[in-house]
Design goal:
about 500 residues; alpha/beta; 5-stranded mixed beta sheet; 15 helices
């Protein structure tokens, strides 16, 4: 008797909003993709789109062999639990869909398995292709689809990243500082600056500079600080997994793709070693925690103050993006649209973040929600000044600020401790509101560094040991048990395309 694997997903850009689904039928014995289905379904909720994806996948499998056994794999905890009979179906829009799905195959021939979103990329990309086609007023075309190729390339990159990480949880690679002064500059000056220029100010410079706001101090370039966490959501892909088999077969014997194939041929041992590392890593949540709330952290594009290296927080002139900043915003928008995973967009109330968010929202067909908790630190009397000017005018206040997280900038600005309290409260609120979803947070240097610091359980002085570029991407996933996983830090690859 044949066995199929059905992977399905659905999404809604607005929930409810423009929605679509994607499904793929895989031969469980060979890992071969047999059929793909995707469709734009108009305005619907995310859960309805997921159920429509399930229906399409089961119907496609039934067309191939009505007598087959089917394993359904989805990243929707709701659909998996409801179709497995463990959760009740209360929503009137989903009851008939679930009933219809249960009748396609005899119940004893279908099993349901929850998988992390990262392992459902083929179906996810199909769903996004369908929504993109609908936005253009077109129907999804199987002949034009690149979903399988995109998912395979992404899977190969992730597997390589896991194999290269030791331990697999998170690797912090910060450009070494030879003195406390330079370390402080890297941290204080923030996760900011054109090509990874550090700074809290929009570019506060000078010895000892280093302000976690939007400051920018010097080019970090290839030495930009990066945190790379294990990119998958499951401890290694089992060698017997159809997904792993498909990687090995489809990606072939050459280049980076061969690494995925080699892992499959090497058997389960390598996967088990990676799995052990991942499970042992702090912040790793087991599968029964459900899908995490994933925050993609986007620093806004450059403003006129950025190259001037001036403090620019929430208490100053609120500058708009420069021409360079607007171009950066367009580039990151294109990159995020290509990835197709963002479901919601939130932005700080300041002009530079709202402009950056608007560029992304236009590409993705989403709305922007303003979240006050994402605003930059208020730098008080230092707003608009360079680091050197602050050091000259307020040397004692600056020294206290650099050494004590409770110290406020001159004139009653916001301390880093106060910022951390605000960001923690915002994190908790958003984690509860967006469980299982991927949310783009368009914000600033200090908030992003603080999200990362809190996720890693790092001390306050770690703020002075990170750099962040304008329009860079970072990501943190938050699980139901309170654990967090830093998955990306200061990625600027989209700006170099």
């Amino acid at each position: 008797m044949r066995e199929f694997i059905v992977e399905a997903d659905g999404g809604s850009r607005g929930n409810p909003g423009p929605a679509g689904y994607g499904s793929v039928v895989i031969d469980a014995a060979t890992g071969e993709t047999l059929l793909e289905r995707a469709e734009y379904i108009g305005v619907a909720t995310n859960n309805v789109a997921e159920y429509r994806g399930l229906l399409a996948g089961l119907r496609a499998a039934h067309e191939l062999d009505p007598a087959a056994d089917v394993r359904v794999r989805m990243d929707s905890k709701l659909v998996v639990e409801q179709m497995s009979g463990r959760w009740k179906i209360k929503h009137p829009d989903m009851k008939p869909l679930a009933m219809e799905a249960s009748r396609i195959f005899p119940p004893d021939r279908v099993t349901y398995e929850w998988i992390p979103r990262e392992h459902n990329k083929h179906a996810d990309r199909l769903a996004n292709e369908a929504m993109d086609a609908g936005k253009r007023g077109e129907r999804w075309s199987a002949s034009a689809s690149t979903a399988e190729l995109d998912a395979g390339v992404s899977a190969s990159a992730e597997l390589d990243a896991r194999a290269a990480s030791a331990p697999a949880s998170a690797e912090l690679d910060v450009e070494a500082s030879s003195s406390p002064c330079s370390a402080r500059r890297g941290a204080a000056e923030g996760l900011g600056g054109g090509a990874a220029r550090a700074g809290v100010t929009e570019g506060a410079g000078g010895p000892g500079a280093g302000v976690p706001g939007d400051a920018v101090v010097g080019d970090a370039g290839a030495g930009a600080a990066r945190v790379r966490a294990a990119l998958g959501s499951v401890p290694g892909a089992s060698a017997s997994s159809p997904r792993s088999a498909r990687r090995g077969a489809a990606e072939g014997p050459g280049g980076g793709a061969a690494k995925a194939g080699d892992d499959v041929r090497a058997g389960k041992a390598g996967d088990d070693v990676r799995a052990a590392k991942v499970v042992a890593s702090p912040g790793w949540a087991p599968a029964d925690m459900g899908a995490p709330a994933t925050f993609v952290l986007l620093r806004h594009g450059e403003t006129p103050l950025t190259p001037q290296k001036r403090f620019s927080g929430s208490g100053g002139t609120d500058p708009s993006l420069s021409d360079v900043g607007r171009e950066q915003a367009e580039r990151v928008a294109v990159a995020l649209a290509r990835r197709g995973t963002v479901q919601e967009i939130l932005a700080s109330p300041l002009a530079r973040t709202r402009e950056t968010a608007a560029a992304v929202a236009e590409r993705l067909g989403l709305d922007v929600t303003v979240e006050d908790g994402l605003r930059e630190t208020d730098f008080g009397a230092w707003e608009g000044l360079t680091f050197g000017e602050v050091r000259e005018r307020y040397p004692d206040d600056l020294n206290r600020w650099l050494s004590d997280p409770d110290a406020e900038p001159t004139g009653g600005g916001e301390s880093f401790a106060a910022t951390a309290t605000r960001i923690a409260a915002t994190r908790d609120k958003l984690t509860a509101a967006y469980a299982g979803r991927t949310v783009l947070l368009v914000t600033h240097v200090t908030p992003i560094k603080t999200f990362v610091r809190l996720a890693l359980g790092a001390p306050p002085e770690s703020l002075f040991r990170m750099e962040l570029s304008a329009a860079s991407l970072s990501a943190v996933a938050y699980y139901a048990d309170g654990n967090a996983s830093v998955r990306l830090f200061n990625d600027t690859s989209h700006l170099r395309a």
